[in-house]
From TrEMBL:
<dbReference type="InterPro" id="IPR000718">
    <property type="entry name" value="Peptidase_M13"/>
</dbReference>
<keyword id="KW-0812">Transmembrane</keyword>
<dbReference type="GO" id="GO:0004222">
    <property type="term" value="F:metalloendopeptidase activity"/>
</dbReference>
<keyword id="KW-0862">Zinc</keyword>
<keyword id="KW-1015">Disulfide bond</keyword>
<comment type="similarity">
    <text>Belongs to the peptidase M13 family.</text>
</comment>
<keyword id="KW-0378">Hydrolase</keyword>
<dbReference type="InterPro" id="IPR018497">
    <property type="entry name" value="Peptidase_M13_C"/>
</dbReference>
<feature type="domain" description="Peptidase M13 C-terminal">
    <location>
        <begin position="564"/>
        <end position="712"/>
    </location>
</feature>
<keyword id="KW-1003">Cell membrane</keyword>
<keyword id="KW-0325">Glycoprotein</keyword>
<protein>
    <recommendedName>
        <fullName>Endothelin-converting enzyme 1</fullName>
        <ecNumber>3.4.24.71</ecNumber>
    </recommendedName>
</protein>
<dbReference type="GO" id="GO:0005886">
    <property type="term" value="C:plasma membrane"/>
</dbReference>
<feature type="transmembrane region" description="Helical">
    <location>
        <begin position="67"/>
        <end position="89"/>
    </location>
</feature>
<keyword id="KW-0479">Metal-binding</keyword>
<keyword id="KW-0472">Membrane</keyword>
<feature type="domain" description="Peptidase M13 N-terminal">
    <location>
        <begin position="119"/>
        <end position="505"/>
    </location>
</feature>
Amino acid sequence: MESLRESILHLTFQMSTYKRATLDEEELDSYFNPNPLFSDNFDYQVGLQRGLGLRCWAEKTHVERKLVVVVCALSVALFICIMTLGLHYKESHPGMCLSEPCVSVASTVLGALDRSVDPCQDFYNFACGGWMRKNPLPEGKSRWGPFSNLWEHNMAIMKNLLENTSMKSLSKAEQKTQWYYQACMNESKIEELGAKPLQDLINQTGGWGLKDPWDKDNFQEVLRIVSASFRASPFFTVFVSTDSKSSNSNIIQVDQSGLGLPSREYYLNKTANEKYLKAYLSFLVELGILLGGSEETSQKMMQEIIDFETALAHITVPQEERRDEMKIYHKIQAKELATLAPAVDWMPFLSAVFTPVALNDSEPVVVYAKEYLQKVSELISNTNKSVLNNYMIMKVVRKMVSILDQRFQDAEQRFLEVMYGTKKSCTPRWKLCVSDTDSALGFALGALFVKATFSEDSKAFVEDMVSEIKWAFEGSLKTVGWMDPKTKKAAKEKADAIYNMVGYPKFIMKPKELDMVFNDFDVVSDLYFQNVMNYYNFSARVTANQLRKAPNRDQWSMTPPTVNAYYNPTKNEMVLPAGILQAPFYNHAWPKAMNFGGIGVVMGHELTHAFDDQGREYDKDGNLRQWWQNSSVEAFKQQTQCMVEQYSNYSINKEPLNGKHTLGENIADNGGLRAAYKAYINWIEKNGEEATLPALGMTNRQLFFVGFAQVCANICSLCFPQLLPGRWSKTGCLFTTHCCVNQRTANLGHPLELSENFCCSPSLSYDLLRKI
């Protein structure tokens, strides 16, 4: 803080000095003409001098006259040279940016630095150490950084919009967002109803053996109900999405489902994960007691559920073994599912899930987990019916916990605190309700958000930046030595064809179209549980309605307020929601170095996903096929294996990372940074150097890398256990597809980029790769 104060004082001194210089020039003018009353003598004086000059010229010899002409010509030439050099210097050394946005962002950057750290030894702590010290992890958060901070900012905006019931001219869909939020905030009504809404739902489904003995033969019926009405996926997941090999149509798809814990590894290594399994069992037992069961009955039932889930974990295929979609894609007819997994009555099941669409047994289906379906069918056939029923009901209960009264939320909190080291109780109710409203009615809420925050000028500016990132990326393709010319040509065509979606889908700004989208979603202002049930019913019909139709580009996978971005391979499109197009990722008044190092790297990251180990399997039209030459495929695998090994060498709290699981994100991190940096260099070559920020003592190239690192800054219980003793958890760190941020900034150790800009020796730069 002291160094920041000194820097601001220094900046103030510079600015005041500049003003004084201006005043000094005015005082000099007054000194040479102290009394304007004598200005009448000016013409007379000039006349005398002019006459004297003519007489002198007449008296000069021929040689003297030539000499004077030569001297004058040289003086003119010298003046032109000085002016030209001055202009060139001004273009290449444009000085310092002292505008309010520049001063503000300079202060922010300065406050995040740790000048005591050598950037060549530990770049991340050099760029972010100051910020990490000043930003302790907030209670209730497992991580905190620019993404989290901006999301908090966006939520505050959405809260104000949702609570401003005096707003006029709202569309019907926008009104529904306010009603949904009001129902969520109506805690007294939620407490009054207690567990009854869920207990009624369980009874309607057929009940379970929590309070009374259960012995029914209704497995198929219960499976249809929990899957169709409550969107639960106990044994497998069924959905509608774009056919990867025919990207102009939507198709039914079947895949393995998720587990109660974040990863199968929790179940397979019980000794190492005893703490988490114990917390999980305690949580389920507490839910059973809250729903009317005795402690003894709940303990027995929930242990059986965990034992069954452990069996599911054993047959679940690890995500790192599912990254090659060409290998796991199997297109069959619906009737073939009966042979693949005979434990399920597939046609009645699919008809229930996708009602009111009429299906027949020749309906095409894509299966992504063929061996898993075979094994889960065997597991279902060999498991007691009551265990299967209890497991299906518990999957529904888990989905409903967060919408019930405080007792259920407290039980969940105790479990999450063990898993993630966070305290949900520290999160205000309004934040939970804003987030849930965004999940259910995100595009209607997004319309309000965009109108309140987003500028069309920003959209145009960002679209231009995307074009520059693309151009830089395509230029880099030319220098890839291991890729053959034919594949390079096709890769360039794919990059050219990427469709950019910036800010928001167009339909949300058209009230009639927006209302049509949410017309069948019934919302009331006082019954939160019922609204959530209505949402499940509504989303099921929307999903069914997409079957056999062409994918719609206006159907985004993220809502406009989201602080994130994504690439969709089947649409070959990159989406940048309005929520992320703000500081600290982007500000049109900032130096380009900051914007390219911020949102530019995000753009490059998503663009590179089109060519990572999964994205590269899709062509420019979004179809899954081999469009690379075999030689380039093999060379790519060799290149990426090096990256797998590099990231697998990293560890957190002595737990090794899975470089294969994070491969796609690591490729995107590395490629995105390089594309953004090259785009910035290209921009400088076209437009000249830009003014530097005050007080930092950095070149703009250095600022690019510092800006990137600071945008990625995170303080988290997952990634920095040494900073948060007692709050570290491997959940979400070892099993996520994204490396923790200090591993993600490891690509800054690239010798050509970091060494050139921070004057590091190549050996130090390579060492940085190992240390970060």
